Amino acid sequence: MAKDIQEVNESRANPTRAAAARILVIEDEAALSMLLAYNLEAEGFTVDRVERGDEAEIRLSETIPDLVILDWMLPGVSGLEICRRMRARETTRNLPLIMLTARGEESERVRGLALGADDYVVKPFSVPELMARVHALLRRARPGRSSGVLSAGDLDLDRQNWRVRRAGREVHMGPTEFRLLDHLMGKPGRVFSRAQLLDSVWGISAEIDERTVDVHIGRLRKALSKGAEKDPIRTVRGAGYAFDETFDLIS
Amino acid sequence: MAKDIQEVNESRANPTRAAAARILVIEDEAALSMLLAYNLEAEGFTVDRVERGDEAEIRLSETIPDLVILDWMLPGVSGLEICRRMRARETTRNLPLIMLTARGEESERVRGLALGADDYVVKPFSVPELMARVHALLRRARPGRSSGVLSAGDLDLDRQNWRVRRAGREVHMGPTEFRLLDHLMGKPGRVFSRAQLLDSVWGISAEIDERTVDVHIGRLRKALSKGAEKDPIRTVRGAGYAFDETFDLIS
DNA sequence: CCCGCCCTGTCATCAAGATGTCAAACAGGT
DNA sequence: ACCTGTTTGACATCTTGATGACAGGGCGGG
Question: Are A10 and B147 a contacting pair at CB < 8 A?
Fold first, then answer.
């Protein structure tokens, strides 16, 4: 039987594959911390939990995990401080780090990312969303360490420095546009519905009109195309938006 | 727990053309069950309620819902068991599942539970919070269902990227033609009557002339055959249309 | 502490596309 | 050739996306 039409599936959850990675969750809110632990363990990870910044310090000097999930708001040593110290220390410098931030902490997030977070999730978030990011980060990080820079064609998005460059020139945009671009570039080619974008960029339970996404996409486009440059964002009528995966080939 | 019945913003509730999703609530505590049903119905969902684990089994073998909300503490068959069986059965394997767990249950048993739940909420929870998760989960692309690539011969349909390529070249078509092709390619060779296509591509409640299908088939054909390429769609006089299962062998 | 700039979310409006219907031309089978 | 069911182009209408304007809120600078 020759080639049939076949469907290529991603398996539901792929708990296997890499040997169980160890994840450190630094989160003071007990319910959230447990929620994360259960789900991470359900996916086969080993989880360490600490509630305070100073505990985290100690734990990190004992065991080096494969990935860290860090809440920005922490009693004791702040998340920002943890992040900074992690990056300062040789042994933890390259650890994949996901920050949990509440909406409205944009400026804080900037500082956090500037200090080296690899990814961030807006609270409240959906568990599947976070899990996806954990897997993505673990998959990605290993080889040449996560540079923290997404690029395609003449476009570069630097998460560490919260900067976007087009053809060398720096491009200015608001936090929302930045996160939007970040998200789209994270999965080039993939079409996201407006609702999905609201979930992951604005945060689950953000009660915002879907049309608002259009406006921000528009602002993003305007920011990205100062001249007569090609638009890297593809509109899919009736479906949503996507970062054009053929973008770097063309430009 | 907070049992005040609250309304939840419906802004981006169910703007989808697809008929309202059906949700199965498995919860023995009547008050909570009703609270959920009330709020879910207020958002336009169809709600099935059962109180016991064994009832759930039966219900699931009769009607497959689009999402399941399952309480951990159940009389009869436990929530864990329900969950496990759902995942074991082919028809329910990919069903989005939200677990309700109480704070005190966050022990060993619950961990196993997480093995298959897509998301869960710790009681007491706020209704809007749960609603947000329900929506988020329904929106979430189910790996294996709405994603993947269908291909046949020189034709590729990429659901994630929402793209169709013929002999490498991108082919443009409207959303309806896309869905139509998607549906036909899903069951190569199978003949669908116009009525069936209207149901699955346009939606159950579509009061549309059957002849309209012809027109869209025509548009689809035109889009797919820029040159003198073979037509992948077979017309079955008096019956309907089908994707030609011999297509890839010939082309 | 106050002022002003920047970011945001929402609207109203405009433009581009997509859709459903019809009718006339066509094709297949008898 | 005839009848029935199918293809196609035209077309009016409906949707959906793009855009500019605008008011409220927040943050930082003075």
Answer: yes
Taken in order of first residue, the domains within chain B and their CATH numbers are 22-139 (3.40.50.2300), 149-246 (1.10.10.10)
Q: Could you tell me which chain B residue has the CA closest to the CA of A189?
A: B161
Q: Which residues sit opposite A7 in a β-bridge? A: B150
Q: How many CB atoms lie within 10 A of CB A36?
A: 22
In whole angstroms, give the CA distance from residue B191 to residue B193.
7
> Is residue B2's pLDDT more than 60?
no
Cα distance from B140 to chain A (closest Cα, Å)?
7
B122, B243, B248: residue with CB nearest A3: B248
Q: Which two tokens stand for residue A99?
A: 């920050």
Query: Which has more confidence, A197 or A150?
Result: A197
Distance between CA atoms of residues B164 and B178, nearest Å: 8
Please say whether the beta carbons of A4 and B151 come within 8 A: no
Cα end-to-end span (Å), chain A: 42
Residues B241 and B217 sit within 8 Å (Cβ to Cβ): yes
pLDDT in tens, A2-41: 444 444 444 444 444 456 799 999 998 888 888 888 888 8
- For chain B, say whether A237 makes contact (Cβ under 8 Å): yes
pLDDT digits (tens, 9 = 90+) for B28-57: 999 999 999 999 999 889 999 999 888 998
- CB-based contact, B144 to chain A, within 8 Å: yes
Going from the C-alpha of B133 to that of each of A64, B102, B221, the distances in angstroms are 33, 17, 40
Cβ-based contacts with strand D at under 7 Å: A 104, 107, 211, 214-215, 217-218, 221-222, 235, 237-240; B 17, 211, 214-215, 217-218, 221-222, 235-240
A204-240 confidence digits (pLDDT tens)? 988 999 999 999 999 999 999 987 689 999 999 999 9
Q: How far apart are CA A230 and CA B69, in angstroms?
A: 46
DSSP, residue by residue, A93-151: TT--EEEEEETT-HHHHHHHHHTT-SEEEEES--HHHHHHHHHHHHHHHTTT---SEEE
Please tell me whether the peptide bond between B124 and the residue prior to it is cis, using omega within 30 degrees of 0. Answer: yes
